[in-house]
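Re: folding output
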Amino acid sequence: MNERPQSLDPELLIGPVKPPGTRETRLMGIAALTGAAASKGTSSGLGNDTDFALLNALRIWSDAVLVGAETARKENYFGVRTTAQQREARRGRGQAEVPPIVVVTKSLKFDTATQLFTDTRTPPLFAVPASVLGDTEVSERAREIEQAGGVIVPVEGEDVSAVVAALHARGFARIVCEGGPSLNTQLIGASEVDVFHYTVSPRAVQPSELRLFGEADTPSDHAFILEAAHATSDSVLFLRYRSVREG
């Protein structure tokens, strides 16, 4: 067996990129051999340093980091961390210095004292169906979020394609999604994923308390091709798939 490297360059794992301003949505996910997407409640226990570096590199590539509400709460999300060099490089590409975290939500139930609001260089965005903003409780939560520095993004529709369209309308062409299962399922089902970065952890975690994908409301079957496969010396496998779009 060939000796594998201890780490991999995240740019190698990202692979070919389109020019800034070109619309592309990438999905990043990790799962154990048993299909579990978390160990002891979070996904961080499954990966290694290369997986963490890939996550950061995809964030730096992106215009916006998309995440589901439950994942943002459970993983205690905070703003994207960038170096001065990375911010300068982003400016040179015509991107904002720091990509925002965009949380997909219908309830706007968030604690504004958490680090999602307090530990960030750019305000978090909350993509919420415009239809629910007329509700008194939701409207009050929206005001609290805005007072804490958050930005409400009304979405004309309740499906994930409407969320992607709303982000595109705001100039966020490069989108990376970090889960969770429901959001992953919706994006795949709606054929909104262009590139899927799938990390396989060499661990057999049971029970599978959290899966990478949830139950789909509507059947779908979309083809992807394997662009690259790399592994580190600790047997973590990094796969990159690209969507095959017909017509």
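--- second protein (sequence, then structure) ---
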Amino acid sequence: MASPKISLKDLHSFHFNDRELFMRLVMILYRDPSESLLVMALWFWLQNHAHFTNAVVKISKTPNLVVHSLSKEASTCLKCLQSKVPPMANPGGQDMPLTTLITDRNISFQIVYQTRFTMISGIKHYLNNVCSIVFADILLQLFPGRSRILLNSTFGAITVVPRTLDCIIPTKNGPLDSFWFLNPVVPVDDRTLFLTFSKGYPVTEADVIELFNSKYRDCIEDIHMVPSTTLDHSLYARMVVRDVSTVDQILSSSPIAKFRINGKHVWARKYERRDQHF
């Protein structure tokens, strides 16, 4: 069966409020375009995955001064996601008070940090599969001649392709209200952890599987034990889990998590590909 299709013109109509809000951010409020892309992607994620119902519509109905303040709160939330240090508890209880007022939903930076890798992966999905298409013509006005827009080391870059309004774009789900797949396939790198072991205390692949599958319910999709050039056992491994939320569970807001299996230590941290350039 052929994939359902939709024209770019129809997409622009469907995302009219989103496009208008993005243009207000970058052309009226003169907010940084790269940061504004991240802000829009964060708002999309909150709306579709954190029960911030109609968040973008509610934000778009506010005056420019309020939109500016809301985008500053969103930028602070994004900085929290990218930080290596967990946030301190807010004695006042509200980390994004204006956002809470407008959307009727509270958001805690401590909760955000506990789900940071899930959120980062989701935001990247909206950047690459929504913003790069729906805002492409606006971005090409802001960055003429550029097809790749760098964001930062956490969110990478997006590719912008010029398209005519009658361009047909294949969809995965058909109807407009489900055009943007809400449970996308998460890239392997986003679901990969880097494991280290102690020299002289051999940890086997079976040990790793027993340790993590018993703690996190059959979570392992793949594991690669990196051979040592000088020892008869591995000192490192890359482990891919089935769901990005498991990365958050394993690390539990820490950069490194420590485990013990059969008297041997295992350290886990988020895998970062070394050949990335920004």
